[in-house]
């Protein structure tokens, strides 16, 4: 029983074999992993900007 499960890449949806030796899992490739990391970085940046805007509303009350 050495068959590996087939999983779909969360980024591009391409099906590939789950391999514990694959550094990019659950993604199919480094490219897909980097795209996903980039998305997270962008969202974090946006949240940070929103938090900086909040204290000003407290001051007016
Ligand atoms: Zn992919």
Using the alpha-carbon principal axes, give the shape: rod-shaped
Classify the fold: give the CATH topology.
Erythroid Transcription Factor GATA-1, Chain A
- How are the strands of the largest sheet arranged? 1-2
Number of extended strands: 2
| Order of helix and strand elements from N to C terminus | EEHH
CATH superfamily: Erythroid Transcription Factor GATA-1, subunit A
Uncertain regions spanning at least 5 consecutive residues:
none
What is the percent of helical residues?
40-55%
Regarding CATH, which class? Alpha Beta
In angstroms, what is the radius of gyration? 19 Å
CATH architecture: 2-Layer Sandwich
The number of domains is 1
Task: Work out the oligomeric state of the chains in this entry.
Answer: single chain
Class per helix and strand makeup: mainly alpha
Separate helix tally: 2
β-strand amount:
5-15%
Structure notes:
The chain has 61 residues and is mostly helical. It has one domain: Erythroid Transcription Factor GATA-1, subunit A (Erythroid Transcription Factor GATA-1, Chain A). It is built from two helices and two strands; from the N terminus they run E-E-H-H. It has a two-stranded antiparallel ribbon. The longest helix is centred in the C-terminal third of the chain and has 24 residues. The chain is rod-shaped. The structure holds zinc ion. The site of zinc ion has 8 residues, from loops.
């Amino acid at each position: 029983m050495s068959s590996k499960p087939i999983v779909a890449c969360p980024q591009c949806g391409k099906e590939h074999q789950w391999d514990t030796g694959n550094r990019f899992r659950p993604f199919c490739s480094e490219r897909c992993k980097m795209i996903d990391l980039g998305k997270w970085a962008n969202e974090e940046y946006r949240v940070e900007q929103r938090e900086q805007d909040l204290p000003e509303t407290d001051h007016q009350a």
